[in-house]
Specification:
Signal peptide: 1-24
Shape: elongated
Structural class: alpha+beta
CATH topology of the largest domain: Porin
Strand content: 25-35%
Keywords: Signal
Number of helices: 11
CATH class of the largest domain: Mainly Beta
Length: 412
C-alpha cells in the first residue's frame, strides 16, 4: 500500500504541479538508505533553499523520528548531521548530542531527486524522490524540533485528519499495513482487532454487518483514532533524541518507550448494524508529573461514523451534561455500596457530585439484548480511582430517557 501511495503521490498534479510561488514547505521525500525504506522531511525545499536545511526521518519499519541537524549547503549540495539517541550518560550535563552519521546529498531534476551518501562506520547510498510539500506554519520551521512540534501540535487530538495534504510525512508514516486478529462478534455484526506491529496495541475495525449495512464511515473513524494514538506513541519514542525537546533527557523516555500505548487495551462491548460501543483503557506517560490513567467508553452511530455523547442519546441534557431528570434516574437506580469500607470510599469520592459532571453512557450487548451502562468518565487524574460503572440495565427499560433518534438506532 505504502509504495503505491508513494508512486501516486509522486505524480499527483494537485500537489506537485503547483507554481513555485504557491509551493508550500517543508518538503517530504521517500526512498532508500542502503536497501532500507525511509521517509524524510526537510525544513525547506532542496531545490531552492538559500540556507542550510534541517530535517527528520524515520525508517518505515520503525516509524520513529530521528533528527537531522543542519550542517552546510553549497549550491545543489548540502549536508546534515544525524543525531544519536541521547541518554543521561551522553547528554546529562548539557553536552551536545553525539552524531550518529553524516548525510551528504545533491539535488537534481529541479529537486525531484536527491542522491548521496549516509556515512557512519560505513557508507551507504541515499536515494530519495520528492513526494509533496505541506503548508508552512506561521513561524517557518528551521530545526528538527520545529518539525516535531508541528506534528505534536497539529495532531495531538482526535479531530484533525491526518492526510497527504495536511502532512505527507505523517500520512506516509501511518499508512502501514496492520495485522488483523480473528473475526469475532455476533451473527449480524462482526469485527476484528488490528495492530500496527510498530506500536503493538490493537484497535477494532468492523468486518461486516447484516443486510449490507455500510461500514466505511465507521471504519474511517476507527482508523483515524487508531492513527492518532499510533502517532502519539511514536512521538513519545522520539523523545530519546535531544533534538526534539529542551533540556536534559526526559526521565523515563530515554529508552525509546512508546509511552505505555503498547500496553493499552481496547474492547468492543456491543456492535449491531446501527450502533457500536467499545472501551479503551491504559496508563500513558510521555514525560510530565504523572501517568495519564484512563478507561473511556464510546458509542458510535455506525452509518454516519459519528461518536454519540449524552446529548445525542438522552432528551434531558444541558450543555452535554445530564439534566435533572436523568441525574435523578441514575442516582436513584445506581449500584450503592453495602460494605462499610465501600461506603466510606464513596463518601470520600463524593460520587453523587461526580455524577453531575462526569456521567457517561455506553452499551453492552448480551446476545440480542442491548444493555445500557452508566459510569463515570474523564475524571481528573487524582481521583481516577473513583471511576467505576454505576448502573447496568436493559436499554428497553430506559426508553423514556432516550431521544427519538437514538431510540430508533436501538431498534433491531
Amino acid at each position: 500500500m505504502f509504495w503505491t501511495v508513494v508512486k501516486r503521490a509522486a505524480l499527483l498534479g494537485a500537489l506537485l504541479a503547483l507554481p513555485l510561488t504557491a509551493r508550500a514547505e517543508p518538503v517530504t521525500y521517500a526512498g532508500k538508505l542502503g536497501n532500507i525504506d525511509i521517509v524524510v522531511e526537510f525544513t525547506g525545499d532542496p531545490a531552492t533553499a538559500g540556507a542550510a536545511l534541517a530535517g527528520r526521518y524515520f525508517y518505515r519499519s520503525k516509524g520513529v523520528d530521528i533528527p537531522l541537524q543542519a550542517k552546510s549547503n553549497k549550491g545543489t549540495a548540502f549536508q546534515l548531521a544525524e543525531e544519536e539517541a541521547c541518554d543521561a550518560k551522553k547528554c546529562g550535563d548539557g553536552q551536545a548530542p553525539p552524531i550518529a552519521a553524516v548525510w551528504r546529498l545533491s539535488s537534481s531534476d529541479k529537486g525531484k531527486t536527491l542522491e548521496g551518501t549516509w556515512t557512519a562506520k560505513k557508507a551507504l547510498p541515499l536515494k530519495l524522490t520528492r513526494i509533496a510539500s505541506r503548508a508552512q506554519t506561521e513561524t517557518p520551521a528551521t530545526t528538527p524540533r520545529d518539525l516535531y512540534d508541528f506534528t505534536d501540535m497539529t495532531f495531538s487530538g482526535d479531530d484533525a485528519p491526518i492526510t497527504m495534504a495536511a502532512s505527507p510525512y505523517d500520512y506516509l508514516r501511518l499508512d502501514f499495513a496492520p495485522k488483523a486478529d480473528a473475526k469475532a462478534g455476533w451473527p449480524d455484526a462482526a469485527y476484528d482487532y488490528v495492530t500496527d506491529p510498530r506500536t503493538k496495541f490493537a484497535r477494532p475495525r468492523i468486518v461486516d454487518l447484516a443486510g449490507g449495512a455500510p461500514i466505511e464511515a465507521a471504519n474511517a473513524l476507527l482508523q483515524s483514532r487508531h492513527w492518532h494514538d499510533s502517532l502519539s506513541a511514536l512521538s513519545c519514542a522520539a523523545l530519546r533524541y535531544a533534538g526534539f525537546h529542551e533540556g536534559p533527557p526526559i526521565e523515563g523516555m530515554d529508552d525509546g518507550s512508546l509511552g505505555g500505548y503498547e500496553d493499552s487495551h481496547s474492547e468492543v462491548t456491543s456492535l449491531t448494524p446501527k450502533l457500536m460501543s467499545w472501551r479503551e483503557s491504559g496508563s500513558l506517560f510521555c514525560g510530565g508529573a504523572h501517568p495519564d490513567n484512563y478507561s473511556d467508553a464510546y458509542v458510535m452511530d455506525v452509518r454516519r461514523g459519528a461518536l454519540l455523547g449524552l446529548q445525542d442519546m438522552f432528551s434531558d441534557t444541558v450543555d452535554g451534561k445530564p439534566g435533572p431528570s436523568l441525574l435523578a434516574f441514575v442516582k436513584e437506580k445506581r449500584n450503592k455500596p453495602s460494605e462499610q469500607t465501600e461506603i466510606e470510599s464513596e463518601a470520600e469520592c463524593g460520587t453523587d457530585d461526580l455524577i453531575n459532571d462526569y456521567l457517561a453512557a455506553s452499551l453492552k450487548r448480551d446476545g440480542d439484548k442491548q444493555m445500557l451502562v452508566f459510569g463515570l468518565q474523564g475524571l481528573p487524574n487524582v481521583i481516577q480511582a473513583c471511576g467505576d460503572d454505576l448502573l447496568e440495565m436493559p436499554a428497553s427499560e430506559a426508553q423514556a430517557l432516550f431521544k427519538p433518534e437514538f431510540a430508533k438506532l436501538l431498534e433491531p
